[in-house]
Amino acid sequence: MEKQKRTTIYDIAKKLNLNASSVSRALSGNSNVSETTKALILKTAKELNYRQNSMASNLRKGENQTIGIVVPRINQNFFANAIAGIEEVTYQKGYNLIICQSNESAEREIKCIDTLINQHVSCIILSTSADFEDNSHLKSLAEHDIKLIQFDRVDETLDTYKVLSGNEEAAFEAVSHLIEQGYKRIALLEGPQNLSIFRERKAGYLAALKKNGFPVIKELIRENAWTRELGAIATENLLALPEPPDAIFASTSDFAALGVLDVAQSKGINVPQQLGICGFSNEDFTEITQPSITTIDQFSKEIGKSIANLYFQKIKKGTVADLIKVVNIKPKLVVRNSTLKNG
Amino acid sequence: MEKQKRTTIYDIAKKLNLNASSVSRALSGNSNVSETTKALILKTAKELNYRQNSMASNLRKGENQTIGIVVPRINQNFFANAIAGIEEVTYQKGYNLIICQSNESAEREIKCIDTLINQHVSCIILSTSADFEDNSHLKSLAEHDIKLIQFDRVDETLDTYKVLSGNEEAAFEAVSHLIEQGYKRIALLEGPQNLSIFRERKAGYLAALKKNGFPVIKELIRENAWTRELGAIATENLLALPEPPDAIFASTSDFAALGVLDVAQSKGINVPQQLGICGFSNEDFTEITQPSITTIDQFSKEIGKSIANLYFQKIKKGTVADLIKVVNIKPKLVVRNSTLKNG
DNA sequence: TTGTACGCGTTATCAG
DNA sequence: CTGATAACGCGTACAA
């Protein structure tokens, strides 16, 4: 019942009457080893079921090939897909991923970052929590020589690489589409304005109104309506107005759009004829609802890949600081039935 | 532009004219250090922004506090929640998680396992891919002193700890519910029979029929109908029978149930009056569809927690082999509109 | 081409 | 209670 000892380079060196360093060289493949001994080493390594001890290797090399990810939720489609995209690249490079959820809490986010610092990860990929305010926990990363890549929900004031989708542009397109379809009073559900993505989406909304000569009606703009429940409440209020909207752009998320649909259905309001609905993010369920929900696809998996490539191609080498540190992945409007007033 | 050197226990020892070992002791908290020096050490550790190097620590201690997870897909609710449950426990213990997706491919699964072996993780938590057949890659884990916990989709022949939900029981309950509601011809969509969970669910279906004196009608049982598309195809075929079913139990997944609903709606068949539908897993969207879908909640987050607790409470210590190695988390039938024939 | 020797940052085991 | 020292497994500059 004694502890299994894993085979090390010493074990295989001993067996071959060689030195451990030769084994190390042969295994890493870079340096000069004679073909014959190399073959011999590889063969017995396989026989002895050798696996490199990454802890020792990383310790020696001074870097652990691990990347930490911090996202609000792992089980939202946008993030799950982004992670899948990241994994696809890092997997090939032999890097590991440590995944943390902040659960939309800044406090928990700080803890996650702290854990990752303790793990001495090479890089942290972050999308901030909803109540993000203070960024001091991020500033400290530099002292620990940990790279930071922000995506989607970013702190703009921080000078890091960022991977974003064109939020303003997408919102502009969505609202323009609503206008084209003949909607006249378009409401906006907006998210916490401390997050730049939500400010940008609002800007896109405003720009589209302006371009088409529509007035900005303050009572049609609702703050902090970014969950299913909050979206529903906001919708109740909007529909109770003397002049209710004939379309609602849930710029915050598809979940909010779902809340809108809930209320519309409970009130027997016809979507899209009496009320147009547009969401954001292209969650899977938007295709399933009755009617299906128009939304914006952010190519989340592409975003993930971009992030990982950014790290390997630019940041890791990290000698010259780039001037352009922002990558934009252009999103796409996905038109579905919830806004098709004119078939 | 030179590389930041992280502070080590030597740095803080030097500053205090102490020995590194004292610092180590103070930091780990276990051993005997005088209160005063301990306080002093902790204080300057904080000042110097010290973080333990886990690579070095783990190397020295001979175990890396990391657990690997291999699941078919990270973005299915069941798995995402299970992972969240695992994380909740491991996070507190200071353990890290490495997450891999097999994408339902045995080949990829083997690669994932291999990567995790290379990482020398302490434990692997696995739910097998759909085309799982050979288990030799799992047998080799013991040689590397890596514990294995299987959950949900398990290889029964392997003598490991397993965390399961009562699949047979749940299927029995679901079919009994359909019978109670007055459905007479209940079809079954079943999954790949190489996976035990699907065999168990089928057994539950058969048992419920038997108990209620219903005949087993072979043509109502459809193999490999376990995605939305395959579920739809199977439904097309079922509905084309001379005597079509009046209820379909999509034992494989809610996705298959969704495929059933697709077809019913395209054919103008009333659910639940003309056709009852029951899924499996309680994916979020089952609540959103029209009508909402009756399904089975497996308490996936609980399953995750159980797995992690199993590791820390029993397996890690790992001296005495347990006789009972299977933990069952009892699932629950969630009745929704798709089966409520009698309101 | 191969061997020697050292250090990565910790912790465990001895002494003192 | 504290200090010195070895060892975890690997990679690499240097010497042979």
TrEMBL record, chains A, B:
CDD domains: HTH_LacI, PBP1_LacI_sugar_binding-like
Keyword vocabulary terms for this entry: DNA-binding, Transcription, Transcription regulation
This protein's record includes keyword Nucleotide-binding: no
Gene Ontology terms, MF aspect: DNA binding
Residue stretches making up the HTH lacI-type domain: 7-61
SMART domains reported for this sequence: HTH_LACI (SM00354)
Pfam families tied to this protein: LacI (PF00356), Peripla_BP_1 (PF00532)
Sections of the chain in a coiled coil: none
Protein's name according to its UniProt entry: LacI family DNA-binding transcriptional regulator
